[in-house]
Amino acid sequence: MNLSQLHKQTFVVQSRTSECAHLVELLAAFIKSNDIPGEINNDLRLVLEEAFVNIVDYARPKDKDHSITVEFNNNADSISITFIDSGIAFNPLTDCDANIETDDHCEGGMGIHIIKSLIDEQKYDRIKQHNVFTVTKHYNK
Amino acid sequence: MSLVITVTPEANNGKRVSIAGSLDSNTAPQLQQSINAEIDDSVSTTIIDFKDLDFLSSAGLRVIFKTKKVMDNNGGKFLLVNLQPQIKKVFEIIKALDGMNVFKDQDEMDDYLAAMQNKVKEGE
Fold first, then answer.
1. Burial B49-84 (b: 16+ CB within 10 A, else e)
2. What is the pLDDT of residues B61-92, one digit of tens each?
3. What residue of A is the nearest CA neighbor of B62?
4. Burial of B11 (0-12, 13-18, 19+ CB in 10 A)
5. Which ipTM value was assigned to this complex?
6. Which of B52, B62, B49 is nearest to B96 (CA)?
7. N or C: which end of chain B has fewer CB within 10 A?
8. What is the pLDDT of residues B105-119, one digit of tens each?
9. For chain A, domain boundaries
10. Which residue of A has its CA nearest to B27?
11. Cβ contact B34:B11 at 8 Å
12. CATH number of the domain to which B38 belongs
């Protein structure tokens, strides 16, 4: 595999939390292959888990098993993770009203707070009946 | 990325729950199950030992908070020890360390427990 192929990788996984372990392994391999500083590995792993679990729990129609597309993008000084799913419209940045002390309002509130704390940019779009959620973290080589 | 849970007895009806590996959305239910089976109102002190825990997510934190609530309701003590930097960071992000008894290592916790024990003896 040449380096240009490593700048972006796309995976399609089932919308269930058990897929998270597999994604974490793929992310670790992507970070290593792209020579991204290893110290952000743990932060990105945490962001990946929190975002993915939120999407699995809230965006999918409960009676349907469907897939989530996950993209890793490396851009010289930043790495982005994009989640694309065809579930009901769900903006994790605003639809999960965080109450980080009790986490009562929304189970995912604590997770979104963690994402916002660890990530430099986050963006949500609803495009052609799909949720597109991207998180970006900058790094210094 | 699995979780290994070891529950060992401690002095004065205490219990130590040592967790090793990854406490995440997939493994948090295992810990909850162990806690439900092991921690009841007969337990005076619950110690969660994070020494060999590499990863913690919000799903794992919820189990920790629920356990603290159980111990608070029972009038027991709830202690956290040996938090690695990446684990402590997650607690700090959600500002969860205030109100928790957190000890950097076993020695610090032993000093605390000895001081508590002395207080009880003085009161007798």
1. bbeebebbbbbbbbbbbebbebbeebebbbbbbbbe
2. 999 999 999 999 999 999 999 999 999 999 99
3. A103
4. exposed
5. 0.87
6. B62
7. C
8. 999 999 988 888 888
9. 3-138
10. A18
11. no
12. 3.30.750.24
Say yes or no for a CB contact (<8 Å) between A20 and B26. Answer: yes
Q: Nearest-CA neighbor of A102 among A90, A113, A116, A91?
A: A113
Instruction: Please tell me the distance in Å from A25's CA to the nearest CA on chain B.
Output: 9
Give φ, ψ of A88 to 5 degrees.
Answer: -60, 155
Q: How many domains does chain B have?
A: 1
Contact of B78 with B72, CB cutoff 8 Å: yes
Those of residues 81-120 in B touching chain A at CB distance below 8 A are 86, 90, 93-95
Q: Which CATH superfamily is domain A3-138 in?
A: Histidine kinase-like ATPase, C-terminal domain (3.30.565.10)
Residues 84-103 of A with CB under 8 A from B: 100-101, 103
> Which of A13, A15, A23, A45 should one mutate to test binding to chain B, selecting the residue with the greatest count of B CBs within 10 A?
A45
Domain enclosing residue B75, as ranges: 3-123
Chain B residues whose CB is inside 8 A of the A17 CB are 25-26
